[in-house]
Fold this sequence. Notes:
The protein is an alpha/beta fold. It has a single domain, classed as Metallo-dependent phosphatases (Purple Acid Phosphatase, chain A, domain 2). The protein is built from five helices and eleven strands, in the order E-H-E-H-E-H-E-E-H-E-H-E-E-E-E-E. The protein has a six-stranded mixed beta sheet with strand order 4-5-6-7-9-8, covered by helices on one side. It has a five-stranded mixed beta sheet with strand order 3-2-1-10-11. A hairpin with a 2-residue loop joins strand 8 and strand 9. Bound molecules: fe (ii) ion.
Amino acid sequence: xxxxxxxxxxxxKAEGQTIIGIDPFENFKRGLRHAxxxxxxxxxxxxxxxxxxxxxxxxxxxxxxxxxxxxxxxSLMCGNHDQRDNLTAAFPDTPTDANGFVQDMFVYxxxxxxxxxxxxxxxxxxxxxxxxxxxxxxxxxxDQLAQAKAANQNVALFAHHPPMKVGFxxxxxxxxxxxxxxxxxLATAGVPVHFLCGHVxxxxxxxxHGHGFTxxxxxxxxxxxxxxxxxxxxxxxxxxxYGVILLNDEGVIAHSEDFDxxxxxxxxxxDAMPDA
Length: 276
Ligand SMILES: [Fe+2]
């Protein structure tokens, strides 16, 4: 079994700046430390996009400061609040595909892990929060899925923007817009896929055209369960989290850990329920 750690929607800001009173730097630092201390056996940490709030070099430098001493390899993803050129300039070792998109792949056992880049454009449009997957990226994905099919692998597909609707009137408008083409591409490939997404800032799971999906909370601010409210900026101080993903021969398991309220010193209790 392979374990991956997923931290998403870090929204790093300049020193002293907060989001609804939350310091993104401190939250990310605390979340990553908790994840690494409790899961030293993880193979990889995946930062699933919106690494920064506005994509400035200063913000990326602060992300770099936090991950500098991470003992586990770190993969970066590009979200709608990132600026791809600034991201790759700040982290020049970040793998990109042949067209410069922040896409990568790993094989762990019988699972192919795909890191995809769903940022709108090019050209880059600041604050185009909608996600997009273009011809070149679909070509890359189609090739990866064909390789997975040939090797009889499951696919864990990391995408900042969910392509599926998740029930929020506002956020569904800025999901990855090429949803129909994604469904067709997956159907043609005939490979089991589990999507692992960010963007919504809330823990959500479900199925979509036969594929599983999990959306993780932000390490910073969260989306309240106000499904019909179209406001994209609704944010709450509900506990932040990271994801713990387990890959085995049978598929993908996704856990969410609220790192500020997690209890790891629980003892048996006299009034506990009998064994279920
Ligand atoms: Fe975000």
